[in-house]
Amino acid sequence: MTSTNFSECLSITLASEGGLSLERTDPGNWTGGRIGKGTLKGTKYGISAAAFPSLDIRKLTIDDVKPIYKARYWDEIGGDTLPSGFDLATFDYAVNSGPARALRGVQAVIGAPADGKSGPLTRAKAATAGTREIKALCARRLSFMRSLAIWNTYGKGWNSRVAKIEAKAVAMYLRAQPGVDAKAALADEASKAEKTAGTLQKAGAAIAVSASGGAGTGAALPAEPNLLVLGVVMVVGLVAAGMLVVKAAREKERAEAYRAAGR
């Protein structure tokens, strides 16, 4: 737990935020916080028109945004009091979705009342957070993102970002632990994620084959099948198979992120 982590966490987050975005389908780019409401000012270095409607987003510089990130995000989540790595996972979440939502996610994984505030109890429980809590927080964050209407537009990038943040956060935590071989531990995490991806892919493929009528499996269909029932079963099976494929892709992203973090 150290305030010197702010600069490192900010650098990691800004690498994901990029430059100016004026995407009209992103509610955050509008001063009113909803598509078509207010003025389309955009987002730059993660500073959105929805959160900062009075700023000239186009003209922002890195030096302009540093104090904003410190005051509006890092200090709001109590970044200086969080364990190394857990601070990054919480901070990046806060930048994307607001400090209150990020803190409610934190409170859910550490077992504190979910009021969205960095109070004494939250800080005390968060002080013992480690890799398990980092992973749980990132999983909750991604689940929230999937619930958003703009997931189809930004989902691929968000999935990649959260995987990278998780891996970098775990790496930061491990490297702060005396006597821990962080490189070996990260390689192990990558291996486990890769194995899980393979298992999910195989399960998805098996369900897809079964749902399509058991082609190639030697399975016998009823002599007089109920076409409506078969249709429903097929659709449910294919949806389930698709969900497993999506989860497998997520695990592959995590595997690659952990490998990169361990280099």
CATH H-level superfamily title of the largest domain? Chitosanase, subunit A, domain 1
Q: Biggest sheet: strands, sense, closure?
A: 2 strands, antiparallel
Using the 3D structure, state the CATH architecture of the largest domain: Up-down Bundle
**What structural class do helix, strand and pairing data support?**
mainly alpha
InterPro entries: Lysozyme-like_dom_sf, TtsA-like_GH18_dom
Transmembrane segments: 227-246
Domain TtsA-like Glycoside hydrolase family: 12-98
Organism: Rhizobium mesosinicum
Outline:
Keywords: Membrane, Transmembrane, Transmembrane helix. The protein has 263 residues and is mainly alpha-helical.
Description of the structure:
With 263 residues, the protein is mainly α. The protein folds into two domains: 1-180, Chitosanase, subunit A, domain 1 (Up-down Bundle), CATH 1.20.141.10; 181-263. Helix content is 62%, strand content 2%. It has nine helices and two strands. It has helices at 5-17, 62-74, 86-97, 99-110, 120-126, 131-146, 151-175, 182-211, 227-261; strands at residues 43-44, 47-48. The protein has a two-stranded antiparallel ribbon with strand order 1-2. A hairpin with a 2-residue loop joins strand 1 (43-44) and strand 2 (47-48). Helix 1 (5-17) crosses helix 3, helix 4 (99-110) packs across helix 6 and helix 6 runs antiparallel to helix 7 (151-175). The protein is globular. The two termini are 24 Å apart.
